[in-house]
């Protein structure tokens, strides 16, 4: 759970904005960031990179398998966090006024 979502969960009567802020934070990257389409694969052709990948393969470490596992774990964590945001948003939006008051 993200810090903002946790804050909203821990504070009675937390505002919907506290939860929704979590949803809108990624927009900062899309609005102001520059992410290269592929900053990894162009370096595979370099001799040093190829040598390191070959050395890893020689000791049983498959680069593509490592990347797949990292991506799968990252997606699972993002999905879990998103489920927390949805659950908290639903709780806040459906809470009766008496539940929101301290």
Description:
The structure is a single chain. This protein is mostly helical. Helices cover 70% and strands 0% of the residues. The chain is built from six helices and no strands. Helix 1 (3-10) runs antiparallel to helix 2 (16-24) and helix 2 runs antiparallel to helix 5 (63-94). The longest helix has 32 residues, at 63-94. It is elongated and about 65 Å long. The protein starts with a helix and ends with a helix. The model is unreliable at 1-9 (pLDDT under 50).
Brief synopsis:
The protein is an all-alpha fold.
Beta-strand residue percentage = under 5%
**Helicity, in percent?**
55-70%
Number of distinct beta strands: 0
What is the averaged pLDDT score?
75
Keywords:
about 100 residues; mainly alpha; 6 helices; about 70% helix; elongated
Topology summary:
Blueprint: H1 3-10, H2 16-24, H3 27-32, H4 47-58, H5 63-94, H6 97-100
Helix pairs in contact: 1-2, 2-5
